[in-house]
Amino acid sequence: MDTVVIAQREIAAASSRIFELIADPAQQPRWDGNDNLGEAQPGQRVRAVGEVFTTTLTRGSLRENHVVEFEEGRRIAWRPSEPDRPQPGHLWRWELEPVDATRTLDTHTYDWSRLTDENRLPRARATTARNLRASLDRLAQLVEG
Predict the structure, then answer these.
(1) Which InterPro entries has this protein been placed in (predicted)?
(2) CB 21, CB 144: distance < 8 Å
């Protein structure tokens, strides 16, 4: 089974506009294709590796998201974990490549190759490129609409 899931889509918007929706956790529930994010408090806009932002899942549990990759307007990745618990090893990544001033190639990756929590494996296996594509499609609707 493939433990790295990838989806891509070209979106008719500048990469900076798309990135704002991804880097601001309060905006993430608007486009989450997994329908897993309930809410995130405003004021957590990510600006650097090492930052941690929190989200509340639709089932009410809290997640701390540890930013492990960051390049403003281009790339962001985080490893979620339960508060005050070790990171179980999965990663969500967004990469934005400007095609021109008004179009961006967006690549969304879910990498669970280092996932160590056996309880999370069924959910990881159920996360497909279709789920990732749903997030891309929702982002496109927000910025192209």
Answers:
(1) Polyketide_cyclase/dehydratase, START-like_dom_sf
(2) no
